[in-house]
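Can't paste images in this forum, so I'm doing it all in text. The chain is below; anyone willing to post the predicted structure tokens underneath?
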Amino acid sequence: MSTEKWKIGSVPKTPRRDNGAARVRGILRLRVRFASRSGHFAQDDSAVYTGTKGAVDAITGVLAKELGPKKIRVNSINPGMVETEGAHAAGFIGSDFEAGTVAQTPLGRIGQVDDIASVATFLASNDSQWITGELVRAGGGLR
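Text version of the structure:
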């Protein structure tokens, strides 16, 4: 699976089978959920957003246990700040918030869509066939 199909703010369209689980080489099925680092921080004016992202993390572990016997893997990607159309529209790109995030991020930049697409591609591959119920942080080292 090439990350070139990923565009800013979009996800490749694939047929949905088994209630959204994707087949990987016809044997293993997979669910990848997207949460956020925000699910782990108390930010002003973000109760609903933070709560829903935290819920994705909690549900990931439960679904991994429930769906594991059916050979369906469930993982969550928790990206840091990523340059997307949404981040531009919200005014984050070029803002003091972005500058502060970059200053605190060990890799010294915000993420790009391809950074997250690479993680999703790995989780969808057989290289990750023993990984389920995990929350994968992809935020340039910012904790």
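DSSP finds four helices and six strands in the chain. The domain at 26-138 is CATH 3.40.50.720 (Rossmann fold).
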